[in-house]
């Protein structure tokens, strides 16, 4: 597992570009670090990073650079504050997503592509084909004795089939006509 410092270096670009981190949320993070951990962010530093004349993304970038310079504990406390105040951003960080995927492969199931798609037409197509097959089987079974002209119907049915099935049906039709 990466150290918090390494994670913050990796997540910095994402955090600077994140639109959900507005002025109010950045201020909450700064105040959290300043009030709870004054050794990490002094009053002077907190005032500097809360200056509203500087754009939020610039202030956040400077804060992240400052925390990275202060070491592992400062980075860890930043993540703790981020988790506390902006949970949805915390869980969408690149390092969090990678960590979650590595620890719990069932959390985001992998999508496996099928190598061969047999039929994408749906259940009605299947039922229609099944009905035709059953009809042909019944016709074949009763054609010799009870259904007049059944062999001709099989010959006509062979027109829309693949080559092997067509040959079998035509052969059967020709054989029954010779009788």
From TrEMBL:
Query: What membrane topology does this protein have?
Result: Single-pass membrane protein
Record key words, sorted: Disulfide bond, Endoplasmic reticulum, Membrane, Mitochondrion, Transmembrane, Transmembrane helix
The signal peptide annotation in the UniProt record is none
| Gene3D superfamilies, alphabetized | Death Domain, Fas (1.10.533.10)
Membrane-crossing ranges are 123-142
Question: Looking at the keywords, is Transmembrane present?
Answer: yes
Q: Endoplasmic reticulum: is it a keyword of this entry?
A: yes
| Location in or out of the cell | Endoplasmic reticulum membrane; Mitochondrion membrane
Q: Which domain of life is it from?
A: Eukaryota
Coiled coil feature spans: none
Q: Which GO terms describe its cellular component?
A: endoplasmic reticulum membrane; mitochondrial membrane
> Where does this chain mainly localize?
endoplasmic reticulum
Q: Which InterPro entries match?
A: CARD19, DEATH-like_dom_sf
State the oligomer form and interacting partners.
Answer: Associates with BCL10 by CARD-CARD interaction.
The name of this protein is Caspase recruitment domain-containing protein 19
- Native species: Seriola lalandi dorsalis
């Amino acid at each position: 597992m990466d150290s918090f410092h390494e994670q913050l270096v990796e997540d910095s670009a994402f955090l600077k570009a994140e639109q959900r981190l507005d002025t109010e949320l950045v201020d909450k993070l700064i105040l959290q670090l300043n009030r709870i951990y004054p050794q990490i962010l002094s009053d002077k530093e907190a005032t500097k990073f809360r200056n509203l004349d500087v754009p939020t993304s610039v202030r956040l970038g400077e804060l992240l650079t400052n925390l990275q310079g202060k070491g592992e504990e400062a980075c860890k406390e930043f993540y703790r504050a981020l988790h506390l105040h902006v949970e949805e951003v915390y869980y969408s960080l690149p390092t969090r997503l990678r960590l979650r995927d590595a620890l719990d492969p069932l959390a985001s199931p992998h999508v496996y592509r099928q190598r061969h798609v047999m039929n994408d037409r749906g259940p009605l197509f299947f039922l229609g084909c099944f009905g035709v097959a059953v009809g042909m089987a019944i016709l074949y079974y009763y054609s010799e004795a009870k259904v007049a002209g059944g062999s001709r119907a099989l010959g006509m049915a062979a027109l829309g089939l693949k080559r092997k099935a067509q040959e079998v049906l035509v052969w059967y039709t020709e054989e029954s006509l010779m009788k």
